[in-house]
Amino acid sequence: MAMLKVKDLQVYYGMIHAIKGVSFHVNEGEIIALIGANGAGKTTILHTITGLLTPKGGQVMFEGKDITKTPAHKIVELGMAHVPEGRRVFAQLSVYQNLKMGAYTRSDKNEIEESLEMVYKRFPRLEERKNQMAGTLSGGEQQMLAMGRA
Ligand SMILES: Nc1ncnc2c1ncn2[C@@H]1O[C@H](COP(=O)(O)OP(=O)(O)O)[C@@H](O)[C@H]1O
Ligand SMILES: [Mg+2]
């Protein structure tokens, strides 16, 4: 079963028909690149998958569950997060504090340290710099932080 399945997506901005029948799927562990000209609709597709936009037609399935009409914050709770182009790390907070912010709404507080270990394993640089102010990280390090937080 595909982890993420997008089927015949139709998205409008008012009268503008921005996405006309896009379908694709992503399997677990797979990396997929969405390529298109400026204004082709890449960001629109991502916003629709994560619930920031609601499609007029089509379907988004995540781990077998229909999330087409699920609100964005519930989709995050299901385990899917969008890391946008602008990294939006909290510049005045440390790396560690930024990562903790990513767990702000989690109820399983005891397991947060375990998740942090997973992030540090994936991005050892973040562990080395956990007390550094996020705004002073390099661009690539900030990208790691944004992904780790997500
Ligand atoms: N909020 C909006 N209102 C009206 N049109 C929008 C809005 N957001 C995006 N669009 C239009 O939808 C199309 C797709 O935009 P977008 O998904 O941002 O493209 P991409 O990320 O592929 O560059 C563009 O023509 C853009 O101008
Ligand atoms: Mg875009």
Report on this model:
The chain has 150 residues and is an alpha+beta fold. It has six helices and four strands. It has helices at residues 42-49, 72-78, 95-101, 112-122, 124-128, 139-149; strands spanning 4-13, 16-26, 57-62, 65-66. It has a four-stranded antiparallel β-sheet, with helices on one face. α3 runs parallel beside α6. The protein is globular and about 45 Å long. The mean pLDDT is 95. The structure holds adenosine-5'-diphosphate (ADP) and magnesium ion. Adenosine-5'-diphosphate (ADP) is lined by residues 13, 16, 18, 36, 38-44.
Which structural class should the secondary elements be placed in? alpha+beta
What are the segments in which pLDDT stays under 50 over at least 5 consecutive residues? none
**How does the overall form come out from the CA principal axes?**
globular
Largest sheet: 4 strands, antiparallel
Relative strand content: 15-25%
**Oligomer state of the chains in this structure:** single chain
Which ligands are bound? adenosine-5'-diphosphate, magnesium ion
Strand order of the largest sheet: 2-1-3-4
Q: Quick check: average pLDDT? A: 95
The N- and C-terminal alpha carbons lie at a distance of 24 Å
State the share of residues found in helices, binned by percent: 25-40%
Rg from alpha-carbon coordinates: 17 Å
Number of strands: 4
Task: Provide the succession of SSEs.
Answer: EEHEEHHHHH
Total helices: the number is 6
